[in-house]
Amino acid sequence: MPSAEETRKVFGVDLHGRGVQPVWVEIENKDDQPVWFLPSGIDPMYYTPLEAAFVSHFYFSDIANVKMNRYFFEKGKDIYVQPGDRRAGFVFTNLDEGTKAFAVDLVGEDHQVRTFTFFIPVPGLKIDHHAFMRAGWDQTETITARSAWKTGLSFLFGGRYRHSPVSALYVFGRRQDAALQKARGTIHERNHLRLWLSPATFQGKPVWVGQISRDIGVRFSTRTIVTHKIDPDVDETRSCLIQDLLYSQGLLRFALVRGVGVAPIDSPRFNLGADPYFTDGLRAVLWVSSAPVALDHVEFVEWEMPAQYSRHSDGVPGCPSGRVLRNGF
Questions:
Q1: What is the pLDDT of residues 187-197, one digit of tens each?
Q2: Which end of the chain has less Cβ packing within 10 Å, N or C?
Q3: Is residue 292 part of a domain?
Q4: What is the mean pLDDT of residues 162-172?
Q5: 112 & 172 share domain
């Protein structure tokens, strides 16, 4: 994955500045049948080589633009790989900062799809955590003078700022290990996802504890000047995450377990920012998958939370109250 500077050296133009990010793909076919590479797995809205060249054309140099077209075309990735052959080239994708998450999908004559998932750090962004799901969530930038300035501009002018920093919430005595988000119309409207690596394991695998909230606006705060207002229907936000993973084929199975208890709409609880929320008291338990899982293959599990995880009021060891993980999963 070339950086912005390396991309400029390879192609002679500022592709990153035009929102285009080339991804180098090399495929060696060791099977006895040909395979077809599906670039949509890397980016469903990818640029063709000639399209990437077109957005980089010079204004008054037709000869140079013709040469650029030919150069980009030759650098592009062929989608057909014969048995015993090796093919390599660039796929021109939309620009992502932080970590580039994508799948390389190969289809053979047997119609079987072979999927290889990659998470590649991209230089140039200071990130909270370097792993995130292939469901389209963006990482969050750490709080620095630069990111605070970008956040302020987005707040004033209504920009999206896909990698806007998030505040720290604490579980197990520490802030979140990963912070992800999905920007919507403006910086005021985002879905926030925070993850903590717990001290527990399940069937030999680590257990992550998560919290998700849907930002629907901003308001003034005596603690932080401004803060986001969350959707009080936290169960819908939980459902939204499950649907997101279902449709992105990143969910293997899921269950619902007892959590902090019921809080009806006419008798809500309040978070630390004094915003009301109501809930059925359940949490989602999610088994995620790096390989695509068809929607009709996802299992719903009737699952009871193990006894050792129900010692505290919120069902999470080391988290003595339900205030922080009010809508966790």
A1: 456 788 888 88
A2: N
A3: yes
A4: 70
A5: no
One domain, residues 83 and 145:
no
Tokens describing residue 8: 């400029």
Contact (CB, 8 A) for 311 and 267: no
On the CB side of 64, how many CA atoms lie within 13 Å of its CA?
9
Count helices and strands (H / E) in the chain: 5, 18
Beta pairing, strands 299-300 & 251-258: parallel
**Six-digit token pair at 38?**
């599906």
Backbone angles phi, psi at 312, to 5 degrees: -105, 165
Of 102, 125, 91, 67, the residue nearest 15 (C-alpha): 91
Each residue's pLDDT tens digit, 36-82: 998 888 888 899 999 999 999 998 889 999 999 999 999 987 788 99
Question: Is residue 143 located within the same domain as residue 83?
Answer: no
Assess whether 237 and 103 both reside in one domain.
Answer: no
Task: Based on the fold, state whether residues 70 and 184 are members of the same structural domain.
Answer: no
Distance, CA of 71 to CA of 39 (rounded, Å): 19
* Domain containing residue 232: 138-309
The verdict on 222 and 106 lying in the same domain is no
* pTM confidence score: 0.51
